[in-house]
Automatic annotation (TrEMBL):
<feature type="domain" description="Ribose-phosphate pyrophosphokinase N-terminal">
    <location>
        <begin position="9"/>
        <end position="123"/>
    </location>
</feature>
<dbReference type="GO" id="GO:0005524">
    <property type="term" value="F:ATP binding"/>
</dbReference>
<keyword id="KW-0963">Cytoplasm</keyword>
<dbReference type="Pfam" id="PF13793">
    <property type="entry name" value="Pribosyltran_N"/>
</dbReference>
<keyword id="KW-0067">ATP-binding</keyword>
<dbReference type="GO" id="GO:0009156">
    <property type="term" value="P:ribonucleoside monophosphate biosynthetic process"/>
</dbReference>
<dbReference type="Pfam" id="PF14572">
    <property type="entry name" value="Pribosyl_synth"/>
</dbReference>
<dbReference type="GO" id="GO:0000287">
    <property type="term" value="F:magnesium ion binding"/>
</dbReference>
<dbReference type="GO" id="GO:0002189">
    <property type="term" value="C:ribose phosphate diphosphokinase complex"/>
</dbReference>
<dbReference type="GO" id="GO:0006015">
    <property type="term" value="P:5-phosphoribose 1-diphosphate biosynthetic process"/>
</dbReference>
<dbReference type="InterPro" id="IPR000836">
    <property type="entry name" value="PRTase_dom"/>
</dbReference>
<dbReference type="InterPro" id="IPR005946">
    <property type="entry name" value="Rib-P_diPkinase"/>
</dbReference>
<dbReference type="GO" id="GO:0004749">
    <property type="term" value="F:ribose phosphate diphosphokinase activity"/>
</dbReference>
<dbReference type="InterPro" id="IPR000842">
    <property type="entry name" value="PRib_PP_synth_CS"/>
</dbReference>
<keyword id="KW-0479">Metal-binding</keyword>
<dbReference type="InterPro" id="IPR029057">
    <property type="entry name" value="PRTase-like"/>
</dbReference>
<keyword id="KW-0547">Nucleotide-binding</keyword>
C-alpha cells in the first residue's frame, strides 16, 4: 500500500490573494496555483493547477460583500472535494453575512446559519475564522470551528502605546462583553455608548454611559462598516472631555463614505487588520497583519497541536 500523503497546501481566493501570500510565507510554504476562468456573463470557474489528492488544504478567503467572494469560496471547496483532498479547511479571516445571526423581525433569513450549511454542503471539514460578529455562530456548524481572537494582535500594540488614564469603550450595548474582556486584560475602566437606530447604518441618537473626562479612550468593535457609529462615538467622547480617542476594529469593511468620515472625525487612529484589503490609503488607519496568527494556527491544526492560547484575551 502507498503512504498516505499528509502534505499541507495553501490556496487563496482572489479577494484574499495578498493575505494568502503573507500567510503562506509565514507558514513556510508557497501559495498554491489556482486559475480562475470567467465567462462573458460573469460566471467563473476556479481550477487547481496541481494535484491535491490526499492532502490537507487550506483555502484562504474572506467573504465580505460582494456575494462573489462567498461563491468563490464555495466553488474552491467543491473543487477540492472532487479532486480528492483529504482535509479541506476554509480559512475565513472575515466571516461574512454574520450580522444576520437571528430573526430580529418576522419574515427575514438567518443568513449566518445558511452560509454555515452551504460551506459544509460544499465539503469543508473545518473552519478557521477570527472575531465572529456573534460567538454563537460557531453552533451553526456541525464541523469543527476554530474561532480566533484578534486581541492577540491588538493588545501588544495597545500596551506599546503606554497610554495614561486608558479607558476601553464599546460603541454599542452589544459589544460590551468584548470591551470588558479588553479592559480586564489592560486593567482599565469601561464606558458604553447607547445608540438608537432609525434604520440600518443610520443612528438617530447616541448617549454615553460612563465618564471619559481626562481619559485616553480606545473604542473596541469587531467590524467597521460605514464608520458612522465609531466617528459619532469619537466625536461625542471628545466633547465630553476625553484626551484622545482611538478605535480598534478587526474587520475593515469601510463601505460608502467611511473613509471620508474617518478622516473628518476626531479619531486619533483606526487600528485594524488585513482580514479585508483596504480600498484606499488613509493616514488615520493603521493595519496590523493577521498573517502570522493564521499561519501559526494552521500549522498547529496540521500537526494536531493545541491552539487554545489563541482563544484567550
Amino acid at each position: 500500500m502507498g503512504v498516505v500523503n499528509t502534505e499541507a497546501k495553501i490556496f487563496a481566493c482572489t479577494q484574499s490573494t495578498a493575505l494568502g501570500e503573507n500567510i503562506a510565507k509565514a507558514f513556510g510554504a508557497k501559495l498554491g496555483n489556482v486559475i480562475t476562468s470567467t465567462y462573458s456573463d460573469g460566471e467563473f470557474q476556479p481550477s487547481y493547477e496541481e494535484s491535491i489528492r490526499g492532502t490537507r488544504i487550506f483555502i484562504i478567503g474572506s467573504t465580505h460583500p460582494e456575494p462573489r467572494n462567498l461563491m468563490e469560496m464555495l466553488l474552491m471547496i467543491d473543487a477540492a472535494k472532487r479532486a480528492s483532498a483529504r482535509h479541506i479547511t476554509a480559512v475565513m479571516p472575515y466571516f461574512g453575512w454574520a450580522r444576520q445571526d437571528r430573526k430580529d423581525k418576522p419574515r427575514v433569513p438567518i443568513a449566518a446559519k445558511l452560509v454555515a450549511k452551504m460551506l459544509e454542503a460544499a465539503g469543508a471539514t473545518r473552519i478557521i475564522t477570527m472575531d465572529l460578529h456573534a460567538d454563537q455562530i460557531q453552533g451553526f456548524f456541525e464541523k469543527p470551528v476554530d474561532h480566533l481572537f484578534a486581541s492577540t494582535i491588538f493588545l501588544p500594540y495597545l500596551r506599546s502605546l503606554e497610554l495614561p488614564n486608558l479607558t476601553v469603550a464599546s460603541p454599542d450595548m452589544g459589544g460590551s462583553k468584548r470591551a470588558y474582556a479588553y479592559s480586564k486584560a489592560l486593567g482599565s475602566d469601561v464606558v458604553i455608548c447607547y445608540k438608537q437606530r432609525a434604520k440600518a447604518n443610520t443612528i438617530s441618537h447616541m448617549e454615553l454611559i460612563g465618564d471619559v473626562t481626562g481619559k485616553n479612550v480606545v473604542l473596541v468593535d469587531d467590524m467597521v462598516d460605514t464608520a458612522g457609529t465609531l466617528t459619532k462615538a469619537a466625536d461625542l467622547m471628545m466633547e465630553r472631555g476625553a484626551l484622545s480617542v482611538r478605535a480598534i476594529c478587526t474587520h475593515p469593511i469601510l463601505s460608502g463614505k467611511a473613509y471620508e468620515k474617518i478622516e473628518a472625525s476626531k479619531l486619533e487612529e483606526l487600528i485594524t487588520t488585513d482580514s479585508i484589503p483596504l480600498k484606499q490609503n488613509n493616514d488615520k488607519i493603521r493595519v496590523l497583519s493577521c498573517a502570522e496568527l493564521f499561519a501559526e494556527v494552521m500549522d498547529k491544526v496540521h500537526h494536531n497541536k493545541s491552539i487554545s492560547s489563541k482563544f484567550v484575551m
